[in-house]
Amino acid sequence: VEESASRPRKLRALLKRHRPDGVIVECSAARTDLPPRRFGKTPVVYLDSSRTLYGSGVARSVHDYKLTLKTAMRELSSNRPTCYAFVGYRRKRVWSVFRERGFKVLAKEAGHPCRIFGWKGERADVRARRLAEWVSALPRKSAVLAANDDTAFEILAAARRAHRMIPRDFTLLSIDNLEDRCLSAEPTLSSIQVDWERSGFLAARLLNDIMTGRVESGVVKFGPLLTVHRQ
């Protein structure tokens, strides 16, 4: 069921029409206003949801971002960088904040500073200028982690604007590995592939366990699958 057909005002009719035995709600959108009470007695599992969404008692399949960040740190540290840096997503998102905080902790544990380019709620053109200035001030041999592939595209544009070359001046790694985006970049983007397919299997298995009475709720985690190396 597409997102547009499952908005809160349409949910009651949708449930009445389909009469599902169980539901998986995908949660990567900005806001998911589909709490368990809207489903009545129908079991529901939330896929890729924030740990703060609807409280700790709901069933969920969550991205173990700490494992993904550790993978990123291993990749970026292989070039012995002078410092680490993180660029957050252009909109305020919980997952971007978690990735920022976690990466900052790992950089500190590695004994290096970590420069942060965070969200400020500004217009796109203002953010682009600020990012170009930030990129131009990065030390040579910095290691930069982008919150996701879209953010990495912004960094590439900022680097061109600042006359910085990747990977000569600094290294760049992204998360999600959206292949079309990564291959169309110049240079092509290296990115960590999160195991989204496994997340679906885990969510389905958890839902089945709830529907058959094996468990009442639960949390299952999925992490990175591999790092896809490009230019």
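The above is record 1. Record 2 follows with the same two-line structure.
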Amino acid sequence: GQSSAEADRVVEAARVLDEIMGAPDKAIPTKVIDKAEGIAVFPSTIKGGLGVGAHRGKGVFSVRNRKTNTWSAPAFLTLTGGSVGAQIGAQAVDLVLIVMNTRGAEKLSNNTVKFGGDASVAAGPVGRDVEASTDATFRAEILSYSRTRGLFAGVTLKGSAIRVDRDAHERVYGTAFSTRQIVSEGKGGTPSLVAPWSAALARHFVAP
């Protein structure tokens, strides 16, 4: 149907989350998961070839409601620009952003946000039980991770920008809502198309 691209995006984002959270040694630390106020996953983001380092991806973003310990329906976002280190040849990368505080969640809810400009972003620490590498890590509003060919590591996204994908919102929610209207105000409801992502969040991030 018309929103099959969005349906695929939801399923892929859920799969990336399941695989990363299922890797015992190389995973997002429990401490980070407990603090997470929001999470965005950009599956199979394409990094540009020949040292260009530019990347472009489409992903989903939800925020946690601490009162009910549930997660919002996903906003659909586009990630562009910036460098993820020198590359030879284009390759697919899964990107995961963990939003560490309500200020970060608020910023990511804007219709456009620039990393390193509007929002502070740091490479996330890896390993289930790792102590936060530094306090600086925990002062960052957003921790970012990448997975390429199974290798999972923190990545810096300075210079990248995220924009709301209003066309996707129109297809999924029936109206071209803003990010904030979906994640904070619940305007779009929870269409069945977004269920795989919601289920993955509930599996990994909601306390029993």
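The longest strand covers residues 55-65.
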